[in-house]
Design a protein that fits this description.
- Two copies of one chain form a homodimer.
- By secondary structure, chain A is an alpha/beta fold.
- Chain A is built from 13 helices and 14 strands.
- In chain A, strands 5-2-1-9-10-13-14 form a seven-stranded parallel sheet, with helices on both faces. The first copy, chain A, has a three-stranded antiparallel sheet with strand order 7-6-8.
- In chain A, a hairpin with a 2-residue loop joins strand 6 and strand 7.
Chain lengths: ~300, ~300
């Protein structure tokens, strides 16, 4: 089976590792969110793409859920010494990714090309694509003004009230080469348990991607990032509320309803099955927390079975 | 006494440390060569300015003569993993300097401003100025074509024949703010034992600097980078030959004759005193090798005495 996964950050990394254990590498494509890309110290940082690549390379720091294992932070210490902002933790080895990517982008390479070079060099055989080579940035309106996603997420640790989420650049962004085809040609599209508003939302905001999901022959299976009435991790709850979505698997189903076939939900949420069915979404109970590697693989299998 | 030092790299670092031990910090200005600045991985690297700043901060790696003490090279390893060129060794802590500088330059700050911020943050009280905020690059013509200085010096380890040296951009470069004044107002101008062609030469190539040396009231004292018929270190010999200069203190005196008052030479070279006198240069014998910290300070004292 050919699988295309739509991926944000931490939660996605777990499911991607699981999928990579179940699918031939040549049959796995990851479409990664770039709405939370940022310029840090003048370097182009792509947190979600890097998390996907590092996870598939077996190099992700499992405890933190971001960055590389066995990392050091000497450059960061130096930047602090110079009075630069250091709320975004860039490790020394990780820095090579950002320096290499920034140089390639400045030399005119598209993000998709340099992402593929980085992935291949780290031994990742699956294809990792940014949703777009064009600039699309998730911006959040708060009572004190607009924030970039990383300012909201890392600097302010999500401790501000979000009134509105805006995908800056979505109007003119085009899917990166291969993205629409990867969705159209897939047998299964897996939507990772990522934030529907700021991880999956930016991907869907790229014109052409929802059309590909709607028109494609693939079965589309999502894993709920919400258990009960709370996000497994991160600010998905608050952000879903800002969109007027209920913070529950039902809210996830509503956000994805036009093209979603199956939503894997926690067994405790299976009571929502009838409401989901009304949206045309089949609820399938599953152990969705992925607290260890075995469960990552088991959940990936469950995704593939649910699509069958 | 107010001292302004014209400085290249390794040899300069030693004399600068010596001068800093003899002169009040507010009375020492360093005018650093930027002709060997380079873009490495898209980052603006200023090797001579950094060597001066690190030396004055007591952070220079004494064994290598460049970069920072106790350095790690994790980012460099990562760049190698990505297939980037890694012949220029950038350490992780050192990288902060280049990332910080590059971001400041891209934000429109002049090199002199960011250099001063870096120096102050590292606790350097002396003033360190680039010779120019404008781009001037030392280029070397070889039988196989033109090279940037760092390609010649670091990548090719000076193992190519140099036919010609050209200061690209010298025609339009202006001295950085404060440079002409620092020369004009100094009691002593110390020309460090740096390569006359590729370290001091680019400084002199900036229009206005030779005029300031000629017109200034300062006594100008140089330390010969040549002992006998060979450079103390580096490719000064080959490069002086390419300019038609004899590889000896006499060649140094010829290069600097229009504005040089005193040349400190190795005792074994004092026989050249009469020839130097004919150029208007007083030869003063000195222990110019600076093999330890005490000798750095002793030589700095000798420079100040010779100027008196």
């Amino acid at each position: 089976v050919r699988v295309t996964a739509i991926a944000g950050g931490t939660g996605a990394a777990k499911l991607l590792r699981g999928l990579a254990a179940c699918v031939a590498p040549g049959d796995l494509t990851v479409v990664g969110n770039t709405g939370d890309d940022a310029e840090i110290w003048g370097l182009h940082v792509s947190p979600d793409l890097d998390t996907a690549v590092y996870a598939l390379a077996g190099r992700l720091d499992a405890r933190r859920g971001w960055g590389l294992r066995d990392e050091t932070f000497r450059c960061l210490d130096g930047m602090a010494e110079y009075g630069a902002e250091t709320w975004f933790n860039l490790g020394d080895r990780d820095l090579a990714t950002h320096v290499f990517r920034t140089a390639a982008l400045r030399a005119g390479q598209p993000l998709s090309t340099v992402t593929q070079v980085i992935a291949r060099r780290l031994g990742v055989e699956a294809r990792v694509l940014p949703m777009s080579d064009d600039r699309l940035r998730t911006r959040l309106r708060t009572p004190d003004g607009w924030l970039d996603f990383q300012e909201y997420f890392v600097r302010d640790k999500t401790q501000v009230h979000v009134l509105e989420v805006w995908y800056d650049g979505a109007g003119v962004a085009r899917p990166a080469p291969g993205v629409v085809e990867a969705i159209a040609d897939a047998d299964v599209v897996a939507v990772c348990p990522s934030n529907p508003v700021t991880s999956v939302g930016p991907v869907l905001a790229v014109p052409g991607i929802v059309d590909a999901l709607t028109a494609g022959r693939a079965r589309v299976v999502a894993v709920s990032p919400i258990v009960g009435e709370a996000a497994v991790s991160g600010p998905a709850g608050e952000l879903m509320r800002s969109r007027g979505l209920p913070v529950s698997p039902l809210g996830v189903a509503r956000a994805y309803a036009p093209w979603l076939d199956v939503l894997l939900v926690d067994a405790g949420d299976h009571g929502l099955a009838r409401e989901l069915a009304r949206l045309g979404v089949t609820a399938v109970p599953a152990d969705i927390l992925m607290t260890d590697r075995e469960r990552e693989v088991a959940l990936a299998r469950r995704v593939l079975e649910a699509a069958a």
